[in-house]
Amino acid sequence: MDSFKQLTDNLRARLGELSFNQKVLLGVVAIASVISVAVFSLWLQKEDMAVLYSNLSPEDASATLEELAKQDVPTELKNGGGTIMVPESQVARLRIDLAGKGVVANGPIGFEIFDGKQYGLTEFLQNVNFKRALEGELTKSILSLQGIQQARVHLVLPQPSIFKKEDNGATASVVLRLGRGAKLSESQIAGIQALVSGSVENLAAEAVTVIDQTGRVLSAAPQDDDTGRTESQLALRKEVEDYMTEKATSMLDKVLGPGRSIVRVDATLNFEKIDREREIYDPASSVVRSEVREEETNPQTGLQRENSTTNYEINRTVEHIVGQTGGISNLSVAVFVDGHYTPGAKGAEPTYAPLTEDELGQLRRVVQTAVGLNQVRGDQIEVVNMQFQSLEEPMTASPLTDWMGMVTEYGGKVLLVIVLAVMALSLRRSLGKMVASGGSQPAAVAAGRGPAGARTAAAPVEDVEHFEGIPEMNDQVVGDIRDYAAENPDRVAEVIQSWIREIDVNGRETVEN
Predict the structure, then answer these.
(1) 431: part of which helix (H) or strand (E)?
(2) Tens digit of each residue's pLDDT, the chain (513 residues)
(3) Alpha-carbon span 287 to 66, nearest angstrom
(4) Torsions phi, psi of 117, nearest 5?
(5) Beta bridge partners of 307
(6) Cβ pair 384, 367 in contact under 8 A
(7) Distant-in-sequence, close-in-space partners of 52: CB < 8 Å, separation ≥ 6
(8) Which residues of 113-141 are buried (b: 16+ CB within 10 A; e: fewer)?
(9) What SS3 class is residue 428?
(10) What pTM value is reported for the model?
(11) Which residues, at least 6 apart from 510, have a Cβ–Cβ distance to it below 8 Å?
C-alpha cells in the first residue's frame, strides 16, 4: 500500500512539474493510445462475414431475410440484394435450418418436379414440366464440372411434324458463370455440347450454343472438323514449329553449349481437304463379262448351226481419294551457331575461331535429320557460323527493375516501420522533455558542486551567469573521481538522486538555504 501511495505521489509530483503545453501533449498521446487500442480490439472481435446464398430472386431473398430477422442474425446485402452475407461461424447451421424449412430451394429442380401429384394437368403443362425437369437435370450435371459456379440451360423442343421438310431439330443454349480465373478449353466446351446433345432427343452438338457471363460465345460455329478454324490452324502450326525447334535446340546445346546456337523453323501446313473419285480403264486387260451360245439343227438336212455371243468388260479401277489435312507441305530451317573460344593468357580476352566447313556440314546434316527435312518436298536449311554478341550469361533483370520490384513489394512495410519509428522517437523525446527539461542543467549543477560531488556554500543564482566552464578533465582528476566513487558508492548514488530531485521544469537548480 505504501509503495502504491509513493508511486502515485511521485506521479502527481512529476505531473505538477509539467507545463500546460506538456500536459496537453501528454493528454493527447494518452487519448490517442486508448482510442487505438479500442479500435484494434473491436476490429479483432469483429467476425468475418461469409456468403450464405447468392443470386437469389427477390422473393427468395425477402423470405430469407425475414427468417434471419426472427433469429436475430446480423446480415449484409450485396450484388443488389441477390447475395446475403452472414457471420462465417453460422453459415453451415443457417443453410441446414433454412433448407429444412423450405425457405430457399436447394439448387435447380430436376425430375423431382414429378414427385407430387399431377392430377388434372393438361398435356401442355406436362410437356412444360418435362422441359423444366430436363433443363434442371442438365444444369446439375454442368454445375458438377470444375471451374463452373453457376449454369442455366434453355431447351427448344419443337413438336414433331408429319412432313419431313418442316421437321426442325431441337436447339439448346447454355449460360455459364465461371469462377475467378477459371477458363474452359475447347475440349471442355465440346464436352458440354456433347453432354447436352446426348441428353436431348434429335439435338445435334452443333445446335448447342455455350456462352459465359460476359456474353462471349464459347462454342464454335458449325464447321468441318478436319479443317478447323483459323485459330486452330495457327495454333497447330505454332505447335509444330515449337516442337521441331526444341528438338534441334536441345541437341545443339549438348554439343555447343547453352546459348551457343539459335534455331528457327518455319512450317507450312496443308489444311486443304481433297476428296475425289476417279475410274481407270485398262484396254489391254479385258475380262469376259457374259457369253451366250445357241445351237440349231435343221431336221431336213441334218445340219447343225451354232451361234456364240461373248461380251467383254474392260478392266476398270475406281479410286476414292481423301487428301490428308494438317500435313507438312514445306519446312524452312535457319540455324545460327557460334564458334570456338580459346582462353586468353593471364586474364586476357578469349580468342574467337570460326567453325570449319566439316563441322558446319556435320551440324547441317544432324539438324536436317532431327527435324525431318525432305529435299524432294522442297525443304530448305541454312546453317550460318557467326560470332555471337557476348559470352556473358543472359541478364536476369536490370538494377532499376530489381529496385522497382523491391520498392513495390516491400515499400509499404518499410514505410510503416519508418512511421512507427518516428512516432516512437517523437513520443520518447516528448516524454523526456516532460520528465526533465534539457538545457543548462549540467552547467547549473556543476556550478553548485565541488569535485567530490558535495554541495558547496549556498551560491546566488546570478553566479551561474559567470560560470567559466568545466575545468580540464585530465587523467589525474578522472582517476580521483573513479576512486572516490568506488570507495563511496552509496554517497555517489545519494548525490545523483539529489541532483535529479533538485532540477525544476526550467532546468535550473533549486538553491537550498
Answers:
(1) helix 399-435
(2) 567 777 777 777 777 777 777 778 878 888 888 888 777 777 666 667 888 877 677 777 888 888 888 888 888 888 777 788 888 888 888 888 887 777 765 567 777 777 766 677 788 888 888 888 899 899 989 988 888 888 899 999 887 766 666 667 889 999 998 888 888 888 899 999 999 999 998 888 889 999 998 888 888 754 445 544 676 788 888 999 999 999 999 999 988 888 889 999 999 888 777 777 877 777 777 777 788 888 887 777 777 778 888 887 777 787 777 766 778 889 999 999 998 888 877 777 888 889 999 999 999 999 999 999 888 888 999 999 988 876 454 445 455 555 666 666 566 666 666 766 676 676 666 655 555 544 444 444 344 444 444 444 344 444 444 444 455 556 676 677 777 777 777 777 777 776 666 554 444 444 443
(3) 93
(4) -75, 135
(5) 294
(6) no
(7) 64, 75, 84, 85, 86, 91, 94, 95
(8) eeeeeeeeeeeeeeeebeebbbbbbbbeb
(9) helix
(10) 0.39
(11) 502, 503, 504
Q: What are phi and psi of 264, to 5 degrees?
A: -130, 130
Neighbours of 186 (CB within 10 A): 15
Tell how strand 304-322 and strand 261-270 pair up: unpaired
Cell of 363: 551440324
Q: How far apart are the first and last CA of the chain?
A: 34
Residue 184 neighbours by CB distance under 10 Å: 19
